[in-house]
Design brief:
The protein is mainly alpha-helical. Helices cover 60% and strands 12% of the residues. The protein contains 6 helices and 3 strands. A 3-stranded antiparallel beta sheet has the order 1-3-2. Strand 2 (88-93) and strand 3 form a beta hairpin.
Length: 119
């Protein structure tokens, strides 16, 4: 979208009530920074593939790598980033580590994002 495609107000008039409501509800800078960092993690299609796979099934690295046509090393690297962002977790089952989505919030983000792009 070109800059000329963005519509602006024809007059400069600040609505103090709107400004006050927005600023009162605005989270602290640290919270906004953390939120932006979470969304950066979602900005990589490989990580989205991993999250989508985990949306369907708790699964080990071997199966994830095979499902996505990637090496275990590449999947592990992305899982590390997803774990640091607290989007996925892992549990040991014998000699395997089974990865899963951390909570329902992650499921909601993925489902809502998918619904949005499919509209």
């Amino acid at each position: 979208m070109a800059l000329t495609d963005v519509e602006n107000c024809e007059i400069h008039e600040v609505h103090e009530d709107n400004v006050r409501r927005v600023t009162e509800k605005m989270p602290d800078e640290d919270v906004l920074y953390d939120l932006a960092e979470v969304f950066k993690v979602f900005g990589d299609s490989t990580r989205i593939k991993i999250l989508f796979a985990l949306f369907e099934e708790d699964i080990c690295v071997c199966d994830l790598a095979e499902s996505l046509g990637m090496t275990q090393s590449a999947v592990s690297h992305q899982l590390r980033i997803l774990k640091q962002a607290r989007l996925v977790g892992g549990r040991r089952e014998g000699k395997q580590v089974i990865y899963y989505l951390m909570d329902e919030h992650v499921r909601t983000i993925i489902a809502s994002g998918l619904e949005h792009v499919l509209e």
